[in-house]
Design a protein that fits this description.
single chain, about 425 residues, mainly beta, Jelly Rolls, Immunoglobulin-like, seven-stranded mixed beta sheet, 1 helix
């Protein structure tokens, strides 16, 4: 199927700030109260509603998880020319000004009642300026079958688009400042009440009910936040060796216009669902600045696939789309070299003291370094060695996982030890 793009090129970024998605839960993937739903019908003032709204619809989703959908394909019990039925999803703002907005981008897919093209009637993406006023629907973008003719709806629709005949998903993008200020006559101080998406069904004539199911996904209302910190990227690599220290490093940014005086930056590493590493750092950033964060070292005890996640936490935070970045880590197993002849754990039960007794052998004329790390990568003890021998490490170790690493000029080896008291 052909993918249709309805694009309006965006103007230069205002303020010199980077835009962020001002719609929380924009992919409908959380059980939050961000989105409200509404179904409504009208025929001579009465009627039985048949529309369906679903915020978590994975049957046809753009990003492979959840999408929202509005379904008006079912014919209502009432009949008559002029009646309609609507399925609406709405997100409220706290007096968001148009000066804060930059662009609106979303993806949608439409499925008609019988034939996608000939029986598609109407879907709208738009904004409410003031829900308490008579002009409650300030403006929007209307998609409709081109065979239908519509009367004038002053103040309702900024622009009309024909439903494409063979679309699977449409990506739509609009410059809000260009549309609303330059063309539609709103001012930079105009405040928005809500953002909404609607699928309508309609008795176009007295015999046939026209309706469709519309999927909406990955909605991005891009604009400028006062308070928003997030993670730009993880800078540290994704391949490491068991027993070798790995230091997570990330680039964070204050996307907001105001200073972020106090927030947390958190790095977590999971082995499947098990959390095996966490480091939390307090941080601060001036408005529109960024910084590099280095976390404590992590030493994987064995090979495998892990997930590193870096996230920020701040309250208030106007955008959650940039709060978290994850990266898959591939850890190769330890290849034991012949330079370590024996590594064993001996517990002195009478003293309840964990002691690692290490036998070693280093090629002649080479200097070796024996190091003991805990599971977080913190170095506990280090000693220089030559030749062959036996030493004790870490007297008084607590229960846990430890790594002993022996390095010399020509090779290195590491082993894991588990202390159980």
């Amino acid at each position: 199927m052909k993918r249709v793009f309805v694009l309006a090129f965006l103007p230069l970024v205002l303020f010199g700030f980077e835009t962020v998605n001002l719609l929380k839960d924009h992919s409908f993937e959380k059980d939050s109260e961000v989105w409200a739903t509404s179904e409504g019908s009208k025929w001579a003032g009465v009627g039985e509603d048949s529309a369906i709204v679903n915020r978590h619809d994975s049957q046809s989703s753009f990003d492979g998880s959840f999408s929202a959908s509005g379904d008006t394909r079912t014919t209502p019990a009432w009949v008559g020319s002029g009646g309609f039925d609507s399925a609406m999803i709405i997100c409220s703002f706290d007096n968001k000004k148009i000066v804060d907005l930059d662009s609106l981008i979303w993806n949608q897919r439409v499925i008609g009642k019988y034939d996608m093209y000939t029986l598609t009637i109407l879907s709208v993406v738009g904004f409410i300026l003031d829900a308490n006023s008579t002009n409650w629907l300030g403006f929007g973008y209307r998609f409709t079958n081109p065979s239908f003719t519509w009367g004038a709806y002053p103040g309702w629709f900024y622009e009309d688009y024909d439903m494409p005949e063979d679309t699977f998903w449409q990506e739509c993008a609009h410059s809000l400042r260009e549309d609303l200020i330059n063309s539609h006559g709103f001012s930079e101080e105009t405040t928005l009440d809500s953002f909404l998406i609607i699928s309508w069904g309609y008795w176009y004539d007295s015999d046939t009910w026209y309706g469709q199911k519309v999927y909406w996904d990955d909605i991005r209302l891009m604009g400028y936040a006062d308070y928003d910190v997030g993670v730009k990227e993880i800078l540290s690599g994704d391949s490491l060796e068991a027993g070798t220290p790995y230091q997570p490093v990330a680039r964070i940014k204050n996307f907001g216009r105001e200073n972020a005086d106090s927030f947390l930056v958190i790095a977590e590493i999971k082995d499947g669902a098990s959390l095996i590493y966490v480091d939390t750092l307090p941080w601060s950033l001036e408005g529109d600045t960024e910084d590099t964060v280095e976390f404590a070292q992590f030493i994987p005890a064995s090979g495998g696939e892990f997930t590193l996640t870096v996230r920020t936490e701040m309250d208030p935070d106007e955008s959650d789309a940039d709060d978290e970045v994850s990266k898959a880590l591939t850890v190769t197993g330890i290849e034991e070299a012949p330079i370590v002849s024996n590594l064993q754990l001996v517990l002195n039960q009478s003293l309840s003291v964990g002691v690692l007794k290490v036998s070693y052998s280093i090629p002649s004329n080479q200097q070796g370094m024996l190091t003991l790390y805990d599971a977080t990568g913190r170095r506990i003890e280090r000693m220089a060695l030559k030749g062959s021998g036996r030493v004790e490490l870490g007297a008084g170790l607590a229960s846990g996982v430890y790594i002993v690493r022996l390095e010399c000029d020509s090779s290195s080896a590491a082993k894991k030890a588990v202390v159980l008291k």
